[in-house]
Automatic annotation (TrEMBL):
GO terms for molecular function: RNA binding. Keywords: RNA-binding. PANTHER family: CHROMATIN TARGET OF PRMT1 PROTEIN (PTHR48426:SF1). Residues 2-61 form the Chromatin target of PRMT1 protein C-terminal domain. Residues 1-26 are annotated as: Disordered. It comes from Acipenser ruthenus. This is Chromatin target of PRMT1 protein. Residues 1-12 have a biased composition (Gly residues). The keyword RNA-binding applies.
Length: 64
């Protein structure tokens, strides 16, 4: 009886079912790779330009 006011074990274990892919078809590794490639292709050009600008700046700073 010493658990009064502390919650005890009431409600423990709830909420463990979150994040389950119920009703979603299984996705293959190839499908995930294709999705990732499609996503990264949208941002790759921007990242390449940013990296090129950074490297040019680092090279200029190194020559001083």
């Amino acid at each position: 009886m010493g658990l009064r006011g502390r919650g005890g074990f009431v409600g423990r274990g709830r909420g463990r079912g979150r994040g389950r892919a119920l009703g979603h078809p299984n996705v293959t590794r190839e499908q995930l790779d294709n999705q990732l490639d499609a996503y990264m292709s949208k941002t790759k050009g921007h990242l390449d330009a940013e990296l090129d600008a950074y490297m040019a700046q680092a090279e200029a700073d190194g020559n001083e």
